[in-house]
Amino acid sequence: MIADMAALVSAVQTNCDIADARHARDVSLCTYLLGMREFYRWEHELPCGESPPRDDVGRWIAEREARWEDIAEEDFVALPVAGQSFEPFAAQQVNDALAGSGLVYGAGLGRFHKPHFFLGRLDRDEQRGSARLLVCGCEYARDVSAIPAASQGTTMIVRREALRQWLWEKAEGWNLKQRDGALKSALLAYGFDVDPVAAIERMVDGEIETLVLHEEGEIAAGHLLGDCWPSMLASFSGKRAELLARAVRDNLADCLVTLPTLLQRGRHDSLHFWFSTFDGLRRELFPSLVTAYTETKVGDGDTAKNASLISMAELEAAAEVGAVQFATLGRRLLELDEPEIEELSLEAAAIAL
Q: 0.85 cut: is pTM over it?
């Protein structure tokens, strides 16, 4: 740790709170309340799977929203590290200054230009080819929307706590109705039906690699799409065009790296996990991949049988086609203005693969 640890945590959390004051409510009410419940659980150090007291959460949300009203117009604060002062988005410089401290810092813009910040314990620091991988364990400061993984340039960051929270949210939702499908197969593959707590921990350990592969795919996709892509995303004033652009790049990243690698390694459990996250516009744009997966009859409860039924050849072929198609579509988006991209998003079914 570092001498001015408390000051750094306070500064990062202040910036998280300001970002939340401006953007936390830019989602549906259901998503907002679920996110706030999980944020309460994190702030009060409650174990995953333990339901927080509803009345306490309600009062806490009201107090938090009142604080947000007071700070929404404030400027982000500088970060004190090793006697220096850093602007809050200088993540690489902050992490360089934190070298040897056992800490990792993350900062960037997420969906719809929402700033995200966090500070946590550094569990792993390693090279993955030309990229640097930082895996964060315990988190000391964060905002409401905990993003499990992200990449900036050639640095990839994965957050264990955020992944664990996401998995518990999904598992709790599934446990209510226990529907067949990819999530059921993934959970059963890790033994969720026998010991939920141990299963989620195993799943966190196992699926960090899937997140890393996606971030490696993001880097590869960035090389194909070029330096103009981030500028295009930053220029969008509405949500529809950005959603399409992000879905295209996500699918390209997974077709380039994630899916081919999981298939090559025969990671059936991770393939089920990946398909459990494959939703929204990403899924709409890629029905041939959905077909290649669902025709294997995954989800009848027999995990071993489900795993053996995944058609590697069909999935590999779909990913190969997707890599070409989404690279082409991504380059096409770069040639269009925002209204034209919005028009494409409205015609998602027409451009689906």
A: yes
